[in-house]
Design goal:
The chain is of the alpha/beta class and about 375 residues long. The chain folds into two domains: about 220 residues, Alpha-Beta Barrel (TIM Barrel); about 80 residues, no CATH class. Helix content is about 40%, strand content about 15%. The protein has 14 helices and eleven strands. An eight-stranded parallel β-barrel has the order 1-2-3-4-5-6-8-9, surrounded by six helices. The protein has a three-stranded antiparallel β-sheet with strand order 7-11-10, with no helix packed on it. The longest helix has 24 residues. It starts with 7 loop residues before the first strand and ends with a helix. The mean pLDDT is about 95. Bound molecules: flavin mononucleotide. The site of flavin mononucleotide has 25 residues, from β9.
C-alpha cells in the first residue's frame, strides 16, 4: 500500500527521525500538534528536501471532546485559574524560580500559539500538509470527518487512526479509515487501559480485513514478532526513537530515560487533560496529590502546563522533568541511532521467527 521495504512505522515529533526511518525502508510519520502553520510548512519543506523521495506521513489529533475555543487565540489571561494557581504554588514551594516577569507574558503567549488541538487549528495544519507529498494522515485521537476523509482519499492519501479498544477500531472502520493502529496501554502518549497482548488480536478480528499496525511496548524484534504473530501487518513505534541520536529530546531527559525501569512511567491527565503515559516526575507526583484540582479539559490543560514546563526547563531540574514515553523506556539503556534500532529489530525479528519455525517443525 505504501511502497515500503519493512513494516516499521515511526511516530515522531522530530523531522530527523521521520526521514531516517523512511530512508531505512520504514515509514516516518511526523506528529503535527505543536507547530504553527508557518513552522509546519518549513518542516515539511525540509523533509521533502532530505527524505530522498521516500514516503512519509503526518499524524494529527482529531479529538471528539475538547474545550471549544471557537477559533479564539488563547492568551495567558484565559488559562484556568485554579489549575494555574496550583502549579504556581507547587513550583514556588519547591523553590523553582518564576519566569522573569518582564518576559513572562511574551514567552507564554509564544508557547500557547504552538498548541494546536482545536478543529480549526488542525484544519490549518492539514491544509499546509496537503501541499506536500504526504502518503498518510493518521489520527491520534478520534476519527476524521466524512469531508476530511473524502478530501484525503481524492488525493490518494491513506488514512489511519489509533485505537485503544476494539470498539474505537470499529468506529474508525465505519468512518472509512484505511488502516488502524491498535495501541496498547504500555504506549507513550495518550493511551487506554488494555494491554497490547490482549488488544492487538482483538482489534485485528474486529476490523478484518483492514490492516492493523500494532503499537504499545514495541522496541525490539521479539516484540515485533509477537505483534505480527497476533495478526498485525506492521508495527508502529513512538518511544524507542526518543533515545536515538536523531531525536529532539534534550540530553538530561535522555539520561533519565536510560536510567528508567519499566515501572517509571505513569498514566496521568496532567499533560493534556486526557490520560497519557509519561515519565514519572515530581510534577506528575504533584498532580496525584489529594489537594490537586481537577484536570482542565483539552487543550486548556496542555496550556496550563506551558508555564511550569518552561520554569522546569530553565531551572535544569532533572527530578521535575517529564516527557511522554511508554514502558519501553525500561529497555532503553544508552543512545543508539534510528538505523541501529531498525537493524537490531529486524535481526531479532528474524531470529524469533526462525526459532518459531524450528519449534513447529521439531518432532
Ligand atoms: C513523545 C510521544 C508523543 C506522542 N504523541 C502522539 C500524538 O500526538 N499523536 C499520536 O497519534 N500518537 C502520539 N503518541 C503515541 C505514538 O503514536 C505511538 O502510538 C506510541 O508511542 C506507541 O507505543 P510506544 O510508545 O510503546 O512505542 C506519542 C508517543 C510519544 C512517545
Amino acid at each position: 500500500m505504501l511502497g515500503i521495504d519493512v513494516p516499521i512505522f515511526a511516530f515522531s515529533h522530530c523531522r530527523d527521525v521521520v526521514i531516517e526511518v523512511s530512508k531505512a525502508g520504514g515509514f516516518g510519520c511526523l506528529g503535527v500538534t505543536y507547530q504553527t502553520p508557518e513552522d509546519l510548512e518549513a518542516e515539511l519543506k525540509w523533509i521533502d528536501e532530505h527524505i530522498g523521495g521516500k514516503p512519509y506521513g503526518i499524524d494529527v489529533l482529531l479529538p471528539a471532546k475538547y474545550e471549544n475555543l471557537k477559533g479564539k487565540r488563547v492568551t495567558p489571561d484565559d488559562l484556568p485559574k485554579e489549575q494555574e494557581a496550583f502549579m504556581r504554588r507547587v513550583l514556588d514551594e519547591a523553590g523553582i524560580p518564576p519566569l522573569p516577569e518582564a518576559e513572562r507574558r511574551e514567552m507564554l503567549q509564544k508557547r500557547l500559539d504552538h498548541i494546536n488541538m482545536t478543529p480549526q487549528q488542525i484544519e490549518a495544519l492539514v491544509e499546509v500538509s496537503l501541499k506536500h507529498p504526504i502518503k498518510t494522515l493518521v489520527s491520534g485521537l478520534g476519527a476524521p470527518s466524512p469531508e476530511l476523509r473524502d478530501r484525503l482519499h481524492a488525493k490518494g492519501i491513506l488514512i489511519g487512526a489509533l485505537a485503544g479498544k476494539a470498539e474505537h477500531a470499529r468506529r474508525h472502520k465505519a468512518a472509512g479509515v484505511d488502516f488502524v493502529v491498535a495501541q496498547g496501554m504500555e504506549a507513550g502518549g495518550h493511551t487506554g487501559t488494555i494491554t497490547s497482548m490482549l488488544l492487538w488480536p482483538d482489534v485485528v478480528d474486529a476490523v478484518a480485513p483492514l490492516p492493523v499496525l500494532a503499537a504499545g511496548g514495541i522496541g525490539r524484534g521479539r516484540q515485533m514478532a509477537a505483534a505480527m504473530a497476533m495478526g498485525a501487518q506492521g508495527v508502529w513505534c513512538g518511544s524507542i526513537w526518543l533515545g536515538t541520536r536523531e531525536s529532539e529530546v534534550v540530553p538530561e531527559v535522555k539520561e533519565k530515560f536510560y536510567a528508567a525501569g519499566f515501572e517509571d512511567t505513569v498514566q496521568t491527565r496532567m499533560r493534556s487533560g486526557k490520560p497519557a503515559r509519561l515519565l514519572r516526575s515530581k510534577l506528575s507526583d504533584a498532580w496525584a496529590r489529594p489537594d490537586a484540582p481537577p484536570f482542565a479539559p483539552m487543550p486548556l490543560q496542555t496550556m496550563v502546563m506551558a508555564e511550569p514546563h518552561m520554569r522546569v526547563e530553565r531551572g535544569k531540574l532533572k527530578e521535575w522533568k517529564y516527557y511522554p514515553v511508554g514502558m519501553v523506556v525500561g529497555q532503553m539503556k544508552s543512545e543508539t541511532s534510528v538505523r541501529q534500532v531498525i537493524h537490531d529489530m529486524l535481526n531479532e525479528f528474524l531470529e524469533a521467527t526462525e526459532q518459531l519455525t524450528q519449534l513447529v517443525n521439531s518432532d
